Structure formats: C-alpha cells, structure tokens
C-alpha cells in the first residue's frame, strides 16, 4: 500500500469517525438497557410482590408451578390464579427453608430470593427432606436461633457403595475444554475433603460414573431447561452420575459480570452426584441459588459435615 501523508491519515480518521458516529450512537440508543439483567423465566415473580392468601393476581398460577417444580407443592389441585391455603403453606415452607420470616406472604425478601438463578434439583423430593429441619437448633436468648448444620440428603440416603469410592468421569463430545477443566478442578476439591477419588474413564466406549454435558430445553431426561436465566444446571442422585449444564446460560471461568462460573456450579452439581441435597446455609456450596458474577470455590463446613455423615467418615 502507498504511504499516506499524516494529513490524509487524520483526514481519513475524521471521515471514518463521522461515518461511524451515527452507527455508534444508534447502537447505544438501541440498547439502553445493556446494564439491565437478562430476562429470566423467574421475572414473573416481580409482579407478585406483596401477594398473600385470598389474592387473585395474574401470575399466581406461575408461582404454583415454580413451587411445584422445586418440591413445595404437589400440583394436583387448583390451576387458578388464586392464592389459596395450600399455596400459603407452601410459601411458608419455602420461607422456613430459606430463613425468611414464615409469613406466607410474598414479601420483598421472599421474591428476591426466589428470583435468583438456581439449580434445577428440587429442594424437597417426595416430601422427605427438609433443608431447615433435621439438625440441631440452638436457642440463643431472645428467641433467636442459630443452626449448626443444614445439609440434606436424597430420599433413602442414596449414595455410592464402598466398591465405588473411585469414580470415573467423562464429557459429552460437545463439552468445551474450559468446562472440562472447571469440572476437574471441582472434582479435586471434593476428593480433597472426602474418601472419593476421581479419574477419567479409561475404557473408551464405556460409560463413566459421572457424565457431564451441555443441554438446552427438553433434553430427554424429564427435567427441561428453561433458556437464559432461571435454572442453570442439574444433576442426579447416586448412582446416576449425570450432570447437565444449561447451554443457554452465560458461562464463565471465574467471576464475570452477568455470567455464571462453571467451577462454582460444578462443585454444587457434583455434590448432588455424591448424594448431597440442598442446604439452607447461604455460604454453603449446596445452597441452590447463584447470583451471577460470583464464585464459591471452597466447600463450607456444612457441605463437609453433610458428606461425612452420609458416608460415615
Ligand atoms: C391481596 O390481599 C390483601 C388482603 O386481603 C389486599 O389488601 C390486597 O389489596 C390484595 N392485593 C391484590 C393485588 O389483590
Ligand atoms: C389428583 O389426585 C387424585 C387422587 O390422588 C386423582 O384421583 C386425580 O386423578 C388427580 N388429578 C389430577 C388432575 O392429576
Ligand atoms: C422479619 O421480620 C422482622 C420484623 O418485621 C424484620 O425486622 C426482619 O428484617 C425480617 N426478616 C426477614 C429475613 O425478612
Ligand atoms: C417418589 O415417590 C414415588 C411414589 O411413591 C416413587 O415412585 C418415586 O420413585 C419417588 N421418587 C424418589 C426420588 O424417591
Ligand atoms: Zn442443586
Ligand atoms: Zn438434564
């Protein structure tokens, strides 16, 4: 290319800028909400803030579906937008699980908890596990209480037998390398605090004990994903080692604004694969909600206690 005189360079740059300016500003005005949260299937909850028994607000039917999905309601009654007794008691159970005031009313704290992106595994399975009960509650003056542990297990305490304390893992072919690395890191964290060891499945063509992949919407295991936001991932109880990420969510390595750290989610979902259900301790890995842009890379004493009780370690 011929050399350009400084003058023509400046001229060209100015010309380019003039041409691009309208485009840039048009883009800016077209996306004034670039800082807004990504639309989520849980957004309907915002419109229900303040709802309580007796209300007939549009969206209450979706609240019933939400609570059904996570195990608080067996959805074999009213399909109406009507806040009935059964719904009120489901909301109270939810509030107990998340250490909210058990008023049965959708107060702002209840709504903001429910709206956070989360794991798709229900908090309650067949009414047999209760995140907030089970363990020791300590009375500490003035009626306030402090809980020692909140871990929970699957029904019948599903777990791996002693012959399966070494588990193999594998990935579906479409799993990105960054996700594989994140899962391997999370497996290391679990093996450092338990008797489990993990290694890649050596026999090609055979099924690993833990199989990780990315899926979207209905992917044939009876637990549909839901597009961006809402449910992020799910995993199965022993001895079913499937662990699925929702590929419609925005994934990251480390804390990235509006994205979810793959290792953080792996640590949680692998906890399910090992036999842990949800914990009501916000700092625990087994707490089911995940604010975007955050990481949780270490096991909490509650997670460690849970897995040790399950396997009598
Ligand atoms: C919900 O019920 C309460 C108490 O009955 C009432 O004060 C409130 O106006 C109702 N809200 C709606 C949106 O119906
Ligand atoms: C609800 O449950 C009852 C009894 O368990 C059953 O007979 C009925 O068919 C169920 N209804 C629906 C809509 O599933
Ligand atoms: C519970 O209610 C009390 C009194 O109204 C309030 O001070 C407190 O912040 C509430 N706690 C939660 C978690 O909503
Ligand atoms: C829940 O209960 C039903 C009916 O008793 C049973 O078929 C199902 O396997 C149970 N689910 C789990 C996860 O235990
Ligand atoms: Zn979970
Ligand atoms: Zn799945």
From TrEMBL:
<feature type="binding site">
    <location>
        <position position="209"/>
    </location>
    <ligand>
        <name>Ca(2+) 2</name>
    </ligand>
</feature>
<dbReference type="GO" id="GO:0030574">
    <property type="term" value="P:collagen catabolic process"/>
</dbReference>
<keyword id="KW-0378">Hydrolase</keyword>
<feature type="binding site">
    <location>
        <position position="219"/>
    </location>
    <ligand>
        <name>Zn(2+) 1</name>
    </ligand>
</feature>
<feature type="binding site">
    <location>
        <position position="272"/>
    </location>
    <ligand>
        <name>Zn(2+) 2</name>
    </ligand>
</feature>
<feature type="active site">
    <location>
        <position position="269"/>
    </location>
</feature>
<comment type="similarity">
    <text>Belongs to the peptidase M10A family. Matrix metalloproteinases (MMPs) subfamily.</text>
</comment>
<feature type="binding site">
    <location>
        <position position="286"/>
    </location>
    <ligand>
        <name>Zn(2+) 2</name>
    </ligand>
</feature>
<dbReference type="InterPro" id="IPR033739">
    <property type="entry name" value="M10A_MMP"/>
</dbReference>
<dbReference type="InterPro" id="IPR001818">
    <property type="entry name" value="Pept_M10_metallopeptidase"/>
</dbReference>
<dbReference type="GO" id="GO:0031012">
    <property type="term" value="C:extracellular matrix"/>
</dbReference>
<dbReference type="GO" id="GO:0008270">
    <property type="term" value="F:zinc ion binding"/>
</dbReference>
<keyword id="KW-0479">Metal-binding</keyword>
<protein>
    <recommendedName>
        <fullName>Peptidase metallopeptidase domain-containing protein</fullName>
    </recommendedName>
</protein>
<feature type="binding site">
    <location>
        <position position="234"/>
    </location>
    <ligand>
        <name>Zn(2+) 1</name>
    </ligand>
</feature>
<dbReference type="GO" id="GO:0006508">
    <property type="term" value="P:proteolysis"/>
</dbReference>
<dbReference type="InterPro" id="IPR021190">
    <property type="entry name" value="Pept_M10A"/>
</dbReference>
<keyword id="KW-0865">Zymogen</keyword>
<feature type="binding site">
    <location>
        <position position="268"/>
    </location>
    <ligand>
        <name>Zn(2+) 2</name>
    </ligand>
</feature>
<dbReference type="InterPro" id="IPR021158">
    <property type="entry name" value="Pept_M10A_Zn_BS"/>
</dbReference>
<feature type="short sequence motif" description="Cysteine switch">
    <location>
        <begin position="117"/>
        <end position="148"/>
    </location>
</feature>
<dbReference type="InterPro" id="IPR024079">
    <property type="entry name" value="MetalloPept_cat_dom_sf"/>
</dbReference>
<feature type="binding site">
    <location>
        <position position="244"/>
    </location>
    <ligand>
        <name>Zn(2+) 1</name>
    </ligand>
</feature>
<keyword id="KW-0645">Protease</keyword>
<dbReference type="GO" id="GO:0030198">
    <property type="term" value="P:extracellular matrix organization"/>
</dbReference>
<keyword id="KW-0862">Zinc</keyword>
<feature type="binding site">
    <location>
        <position position="246"/>
    </location>
    <ligand>
        <name>Ca(2+) 3</name>
    </ligand>
</feature>
<dbReference type="InterPro" id="IPR036365">
    <property type="entry name" value="PGBD-like_sf"/>
</dbReference>
<dbReference type="Pfam" id="PF00413">
    <property type="entry name" value="Peptidase_M10"/>
</dbReference>
<feature type="binding site">
    <location>
        <position position="226"/>
    </location>
    <ligand>
        <name>Ca(2+) 3</name>
    </ligand>
</feature>
<feature type="binding site" description="in inhibited form">
    <location>
        <position position="119"/>
    </location>
    <ligand>
        <name>Zn(2+) 2</name>
    </ligand>
</feature>
<feature type="binding site">
    <location>
        <position position="227"/>
    </location>
    <ligand>
        <name>Ca(2+) 3</name>
    </ligand>
</feature>
<dbReference type="InterPro" id="IPR002477">
    <property type="entry name" value="Peptidoglycan-bd-like"/>
</dbReference>
<keyword id="KW-0732">Signal</keyword>
<feature type="signal peptide">
    <location>
        <begin position="1"/>
        <end position="26"/>
    </location>
</feature>
<dbReference type="InterPro" id="IPR006026">
    <property type="entry name" value="Peptidase_Metallo"/>
</dbReference>
<feature type="domain" description="Peptidase metallopeptidase">
    <location>
        <begin position="156"/>
        <end position="313"/>
    </location>
</feature>
<keyword id="KW-0106">Calcium</keyword>
<dbReference type="Pfam" id="PF01471">
    <property type="entry name" value="PG_binding_1"/>
</dbReference>
<keyword id="KW-0482">Metalloprotease</keyword>
<dbReference type="GO" id="GO:0004222">
    <property type="term" value="F:metalloendopeptidase activity"/>
</dbReference>
<feature type="binding site">
    <location>
        <position position="221"/>
    </location>
    <ligand>
        <name>Zn(2+) 1</name>
    </ligand>
</feature>
């Amino acid at each position: 290319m011929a050399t350009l005189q400084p003058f023509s360079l400046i001229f060209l740059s100015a010309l380019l800028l003039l041409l691009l300016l309208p485009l840039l500003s048009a883009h800016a005005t077209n996306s004034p909400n670039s800082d807004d949260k990504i639309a989520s299937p849980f957004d309907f909850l915002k419109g229900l803030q303040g709802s309580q028994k007796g209300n007939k607000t549009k969206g209450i039917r979706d609240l019933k579906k939400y609570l059904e999905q996570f195990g608080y309601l067996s959805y074999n009654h009213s399909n109406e937008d009507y806040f009935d007794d059964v719904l009120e008691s489901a909301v109270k159970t939810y509030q107990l699980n998340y250490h909210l005031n058990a008023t049965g009313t959708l107060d702002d704290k209840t709504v903001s908890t429910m709206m956070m992106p989360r794991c798709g595994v229900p908090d309650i399975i067949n009414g047999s596990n209760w995140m907030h009960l089970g363990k020791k509650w300590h009375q500490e003056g003035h009626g306030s209480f402090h809980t020692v542990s909140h871990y929970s297990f699957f029904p019948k305490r599903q777990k791996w037998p002693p012959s399966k304390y070494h588990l193999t893992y594998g990935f579906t072919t479409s799993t990105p390398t960054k996700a594989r690395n994140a899962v391997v890191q999370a497996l290391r964290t679990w093996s450092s605090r338990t008797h489990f060891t993990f290694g890649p499945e050596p026999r090609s063509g055979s099924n690993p004990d833990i199989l990780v992949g990315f899926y979207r919407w209905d992917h044939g295991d009876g637990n549909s994903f839901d597009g961006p936001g809402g449910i992020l991932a799910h995993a199965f109880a022993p001895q079913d080692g499937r662990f699925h990420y929702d590929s419609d969510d925005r994934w990251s390595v480390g804390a990235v604004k509006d994205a979810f750290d793959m290792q953080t989610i792996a640590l949680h979902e692998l906890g399910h694969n090992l036999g842990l259900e949800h914990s009501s301790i916000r700092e625990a890995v087994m707490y089911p909600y995940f604010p975007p842009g955050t990481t949780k890379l270490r096991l909490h004493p509650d997670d460690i206690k849970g897995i040790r009780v399950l396997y009598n370690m």
